[in-house]
Specification:
Length: 334
């Protein structure tokens, strides 16, 4: 059997041999992975652990929080605040930024996360996940402000997600391709199971919430209409559809076998740019997808180039197989 490479060993070698990451960033990724392991255990316990159902609270986006949204947020904070690698954190479930308490040393990195992605799937035992993005704090200043987080996705230094499905799988990029690690529950460690993942440029599978069809903008409608027309339509082939309603699970499928994922702007709320959040959903996923040879735009421009204006800013998302994303983006330009 081929030698098993743990996440720890993989990170050490990326740091020591290839210089792909600093010691601090290596520690950060290890700690995020450890937190995800903890979340994975809580998810697996389900009703037995008393973690299902809603909490009596709302987050800053006006969504009712599930118990696991709050638990996962706390696990990530507690795991990360004492390590000395971070200056501050930000999350879907916290209104403002979370400063590392004074009793701990301050590091130079900023960590953003969607602690629990796919909240509507928790209670129905469908795959959910955690998404994370790491930025560097601007140099030569003492404190941290929310403003320091507002950097475009091109400035990420590490990003990825952990999916809690039939397997628990951690997907990571530090800007040198995409690596996949599967949790070995007996050993309690993540083991490298795929490296240099590539998303096929073409696909016959799309993911979109079709119930919003009547609200879509013309270019999105045209693209999906053409897919639905199948072999006899302008695309000359039949398309399949999947919609899991956990971005992590939809993106993971696309990473595995290709496809295009869309959560576009629509007419229900004309002043809202989209549903998904730029800084801790779209940016990390866009970077992972690009690092695997795919593409990610908001229909008009590359997601990673967008200059964020606020922490919880929303964005329209089209990502996945390159030729399909380019087609959807071209339809918007017309
Ligand atoms: P979250 O659970 O972190 O709030 O994110 C849910 C997101 C995303 O994971 C998914 O693609 C989308 O919401 C599903 O939205 P619909 O329920 O509108 O299909
Ligand atoms: Mn939510
Ligand atoms: Mn989410
Ligand atoms: Mn979430």
């Amino acid at each position: 059997m081929a030698q098993r490479i743990s996440l720890t060993r993989w990170l050490v070698e990326k740091q020591r041999v290839q210089g792909h990451l600093s010691a601090e960033l290596r520690l950060l990724v290890e700690i995020v992975a450890r937190a995800c392991k903890g979340i994975s255990h809580a998810v697996n316990k389900g009703a037995l652990g008393g973690v299902l159902g809603s909490a009596e609270s709302e987050n800053v986006q006006g969504e009712v929080q599930k118990k696991l949204d709050i638990i996962a947020n706390e696990v990530l904070i507690e795991a990360n605040e004492w390590g000395g690698h971070l200056a501050a954190m930000a999350s879907e479930e916290m209104d403002g930024i979370y400063l590392v308490p004074n009793r701990y040393p301050q590091g130079e990195y900023l960590l953003l996360f969607d602690p629990l992605d796919g909240s509507s799937n928790i209670d129905v035992n469908v795959s959910i996940g955690t998404i994370f993005s790491v930025l560097k704090k601007p140099e030569g200043q003492a404190g941290v402000t929310e403003q320091d987080f507002l950097q475009p996705g091109t400035r990420q230094v590490a990003a990825g997600y952990c999916i809690y499905g039939p397997q628990t799988t951690l997907v990571l990029t530090t800007g040198h391709g995409v690596a996949v690690f599967t949790l070995d529950r007996e050993q309690g460690s993540f083991v490298l199971t795929d490296e240099n993942v590539r998303i096929p440029a073409d696909t016959k599978e799309f993911a979109i919430n079709m119930s919003n069809m009547r609200h879509w903008d013309e270019p999105v409608r045209r693209y999906i209409d053409e897919c639905l027309a199948g072999k006899d339509g302008p695309r000359g082939k039949d398309f399949n559809m999947r919609w899991i309603a956990s971005m992590v699970a939809d993106v993971h499928r696309i990473l595995t076998r290709g496809g295009v994922f869309m959560y576009p702007w629509d007419k229900r709320e004309p002043n809202k740019p989209g549903k998904l959040r730029l800084m801790y959903e779209a940016n990390p996923m866009a970077w992972v997808v690009e690092q695997a040879g795919g593409a990610a735009t908001n229909g008009r421009e590359r997601i990673l180039d967008i200059q964020p204006q606020s922490l919880h800013e929303r964005v329209s998302v089209v990502l996945g197989s390159k030729n399909e994303v380019e087609r959807v983006t071209a339809y918007h330009a017309k």
